[in-house]
Amino acid sequence: NHYTVTYDGNGATNGQMSDGYAVYDDSFTLDTIGYTKKGYTFVGWEATLKDGTLITLADQELLDPWQYEENITLVAKWKKNHYTVTYDGNGATNGQMSDGYAVYDDSFTLDSIGYTKKGYSFAGWSTKKDGTPEYTNAQPFNNWNIDKNLVLYAVWKKDAPISKPATGPQNSTVRKAAISTGDNTNMILWVLLLGISFVVISKNIKKEY
Hints:
Number of helices: 1
Radius of gyration: 45 Å
Distance between the termini: 164 Å
Mean pLDDT: 87
Shape: rod-shaped
Number of strands: 17
Order of helices and strands: EEEEEEEEEEEEEEEEEH
Strand order of the largest sheet: 3-1-9-6-7
Strand content: 35-45%
Low-confidence stretches: 174-183
């Protein structure tokens, strides 16, 4: 008898495979996996027979001879990929950060910034060395969906200059003004004293005459 072997991608995001046809008691080789699934790696096939028996088969496995007396649907088995997240200080003057490890379709949170840069404030993370912020500090992801290792570069924003209080020259001007004011006051007092003295002398002269 001839039996149909159907390949089920089980959530594959790309590819296709045609049915295979096995002959009882003849050898049969499974087709090469023709599916891919973003963020996952193919690890083999599973099939459940009519009697409930679960069988597992590898990619391109040879069955010699074929001894299943029924059509079979092989379901692809997928394993989630793990990806490295590297944090680049991008000119930081202090600090260090270890790599993170994200699992596709699992939750993941970026580490808190562990770098500092003198005269700058951290503005976020970018996938480009000279890019603008794409991710925030300690940003959480409900489902990590980036299917590659990732290098994140710190983005720095230059701090605004700090205003300084008035320095010596300005204070000197104030002191000079005060001295000038004092000099004017002393001059007025001297004028008044001279005036009074003149009046007194004039009166004494009149009395004598």
